[in-house]
Specification:
The C terminus is likely disordered. The N and C termini lie far apart (86 Å). The protein is mostly helical and 506 residues long. Helices cover 58% and strands 2% of the residues. The protein contains 21 helices and two strands. A hairpin with a 2-residue loop joins strand 1 and strand 2. Helix 4 packs parallel to helix 7, helix 4 runs antiparallel to helix 8 and helix 8 runs antiparallel to helix 10. The protein has one domain: Ribonucleotide Reductase, subunit A (Orthogonal Bundle). Strands 1-2 form a two-stranded antiparallel ribbon. The structure holds manganese (II) ion (MN) (2 copies).
């Protein structure tokens, strides 16, 4: 075996670029796969230099060690009663996680392999191949772990099933991930998937939720997602050198636009997934931070620093729309998801017992006035035995960009409303509705990319869902009665701190 030192062969192996003579650059790097955005010839991309260096041999060795560690935790935990003893709200958080994340991880492998073939520098293609292997591992491991729990929780099969259904959250996830990686060119994927999504938002779900998992005592899930995060933080570093090349070549405007577009979309989907899990589903005594505090730490602080380091600006909607939404958006989503609980594959945990409400008011001053009042009425209906009043009879309006229901609670706390809600746009004779100015802006920047897609409600009104009733729609979403979400604690929260009927103190 050759005994060359790593430094003697590494750069040649990872960064071997050459000029094409048998085919044109356009043939080798077609625009749909690899838009050069005016930065030609290709040599101008060859300075692409990733901060994280790894050889294939080291990669395989490291990954094998990670898998060995995390699968051994899983095999021990599978024989224990750990899962049965977890808090019901926490179980909901991980059932939601697996359905929303497992297959998109696998699909992220398509984005990585696109960069692995169509990245415009050899070092980039090399790095992206490791990313492809990472995402394949993440897809496998996050379908395998829920598989081992199937006998304890049949809805764990939504890890594999969700993305193949028309469940509304699954449509929102597919719309986002197709936009971000399956239908994206290599340069945009590097900026949107790795720089925007992975550097900022996956930290929230994978580091934030890992911290909560350890508090809750869910060693299985904690070990799993910490292991995944070590890969993400490596391949996420494809974004920085790509931003650098764009900025150096006078295309900071493009990098900015791609970030602005994907930051908002990522924010909305993570508010739905992580926001609910952290502030409502995680047991109160085990919450390490509020969702907003995690956002401040991982997004506001770190992401803004990164913007500045690379010569980008906070997005135009940062102070006007994004920061204000931190105080209300996920609370409004939570209220909606709980109310429309039959439409999700997990059991939403209301998370509004007296002690939890106190915590919410402390972390989000004004929560009681804005949201508590709705929960007061819901709780009263539950105590009066009128459960039917707490269940949906109609559908909400759904945004034609993020595909998430419009939840702005009557404008209150939603900041200054510069136009009536929902935001409307007529494009080529069709009317589109949006939950927010930034969602509308993203559409307007690129109408050809988004026009024609129908939301769940468009399909309902268009007659695609038969019969056009709530049960008809639930069946269309792939939800059998056993799979539909119910209140996670069978309404225990509504009775807490109240006398049971007929049990007056003597
Ligand atoms: Mn991944
Ligand atoms: Mn990734």
């Amino acid at each position: 075996m050759p005994k060359l030192r790593r430094s003697e062969w590494y750069d040649l192996a990872r960064d071997l670029n050459w000029n094409l003579s048998y085919v044109t650059e356009e043939e080798a790097f077609p625009e749909e796969m690899s838009n050069h955005y005016g930065i030609t010839p290709n040599e101008r991309w060859w300075g692409w230099d990733e901060p994280y260096k790894v050889s294939y041999r080291e990669y395989v060795h490291n990954q094998h060690g990670k898998d060995a560690a995390v699968y051994s935790v899983n095999s021990v935990v599978a024989r224990s009663r750990m899962f049965e003893e977890l808090d019901p709200g926490w179980k909901s958080a991980i059932i939601a996680h697996y359905g929303a994340i497992a297959l998109p991880e696998y699909i992220a492998g398509i984005g990585e392999s696109r960069m692995g073939r169509f990245g415009r520098a050899a070092a980039w293609r090399n790095m992206a191949l490791f990313g492809t292997l990472d995402e394949t591992r993440h897809g496998q491991i996050q379908t395998y772990f829920p598989y081992t729990l199937l006998d304890k929780e049949p809805r764990m099969d939504w890890a594999h099933k969700a993305l193949h259904t028309n469940e509304w959250g699954a449509i929102a996830a597919r719309h986002l991930f197709d936009d971000m990686f399956t239908a994206n060119d290599a340069v945009s994927t590097a900026i949107q998937l790795t720089f925007t999504f992975e550097t900022g938002f996956t930290n929230l779900q994978f580091l934030g939720m890992a911290a909560d998992a350890m508090e809750v005592g869910d060693l299985d899930f904690g070990a799993l997602i910490s292991s995944i995060q070590t890969d993400e933080s490596r391949h996420a570093q494809q974004g920085e050198p790509t931003v650098k090349i764009l900025v150096e070549n006078g295309r900071a405007d493009l990098a900015q636009k791609l970030v602005d577009h994907m930051f908002w979309r990522s924010w909305h989907i993570f508010a739905l997934l992580t926001g609910l899990s952290m502030d409502y589903y995680t047991p109160l005594e085990h919450r390490s931070h509020s969702f907003k505090e995690f956002m401040e730490e991982w997004i506001i602080k770190q992401f803004l620093d990164q913007f500045r380091d690379f010569g980008l600006e906070p997005s135009w909607y940062w102070d006007s729309h994004f920061v204000p939404e931190l105080d209300w958006y996920h609370h409004a989503l939570h209220l909606g998801v709980w109310f429309w609980r039959p439409t999700v594959w997990w059991n939403p945990d209301a998370g509004v017992s007296p002690a939890e409400r106190e915590w919410l008011e402390e972390k989000y001053p004004g929560w009681n006035d804005t949201f508590g009042v709705y929960w007061d009425t819901i709780a009263e209906n539950i105590r009066n035995g009128a459960e039917e009043k707490t269940l949906p009879e109609t559908f909400p309006i759904v945004c034609n960009m993020c595909q998430i229901p419009v939840v702005t609670p009557a404008g209150y706390r939603a900041g200054k409303l510069d136009s009536p809600l929902p935001h409307l746009l007529v494009h080529e004779g069709r009317q589109y509705v949006f939950c927010s100015e930034p969602c509308k802006w993203i559409f307007e920047q690129n109408p050809a990319r988004f026009a024609g897609h129908t939301s769940v409600v468009d399909r309902f009104l268009g007659g695609e869902i038969q019969p056009p009733t709530i049960p008809g729609a639930l069946a269309w979403m792939g939800l059998s009665p056993e799979e539909m979400g119910q209140d996670a604690t069978n309404y225990a929260w509504a009775h807490e701190g109240r006398e049971a009927p007929g049990a007056a103190a003597s």
